[in-house]
From TrEMBL:
Protein name: Protein kinase domain-containing protein
Recorded coiled-coil stretches: none
InterPro entries tied to this protein: HIT-like_sf
Compositional bias (Basic and acidic residues): 122-132
Keyword Nucleotide-binding: yes
SUPFAM superfamilies according to UniProt: HIT-like (SSF54197)
Annotated organism of origin: Clathrus columnatus
Keyword list, A-Z: Hydrolase, Nucleotide-binding
Annotated PANTHER family: ADENOSINE 5'-MONOPHOSPHORAMIDASE HINT3, APRATAXIN-RELATED
Molecular function terms, GO-annotated: hydrolase activity; nucleotide binding
Amino acid sequence: MASQTQASEPQAAANTKPNCEGNVVVFKDRSPSAQQHLLVTPLNHLDGVKELSAEHVPLLQEMEAAGNRALDKLSDAYPPEKRIVEQEAWFYEELEQVQGIAVPRCYGLFQAHIEPGSEVSAWKEERKHEFQESDESSESGYGSPKFDWDTPDPNGERVPSFPPPDPTLITILLFERLGERMPINEPLDIIKPGVYEIYNDISRLGIEHLDIRWSNILSVQDSDHQPPEKVCPNHGHAHRWRIVDFDLARKSNGRIDYLDYSAGNWLQRLFMNLPNGVIIEPWDW
């Protein structure tokens, strides 16, 4: 299943009304090159809801039930921060040329308001990861909850650079469904060239992923319901792997070979350790 958005301050237009045709809801692929590639969800899965509006949220439950791995990260916090999701959506627009090639196909950014106190099962009440604030994290901003509180006022107090998230607003990026992560405790010689190539594809667009992790590289899912494979114009064949999670990404004017070298250093660490059963994270240096 699919998703998309940044600029200096991201301006994302939320598609709040999926197209309804007969007894199904149809999400159209945002990429013009996708032609007639559609994601179809039966209405009987939505409890009769005909559109996603301020009063209708069951669609979100169906998204989670469909097993979309792209929602794993969003389920870590309730509700997700709208600005973070919109920034990631902006990057998927920037990566439009390689959607379905190096990154997942993106179907759009969707938002809906819920009544205060409502519960949505697609988000867990307990967070998987609780960020621990420290002096280091408050300065770096990497993975830190403090990065929005960086503007001192005249009295020396820290004030938010952005308004706090609206607790009644649900924001979702919808992606195509992907497959498994890279194998562990197995040789990766066959896989490595393809993964280096998809990072080269985004380097050519001047984008640094900056979150190169085992959990952010997923395989293409083999299914009769998947759209036809797209041949990569840079490498002359279809890739079997996709990069996900661009909320930490940034635009760069660096040379392609420099961006490839930077990404390659992180990938090499993964490839050296996964065959030994060790998952290296960006903070494990």
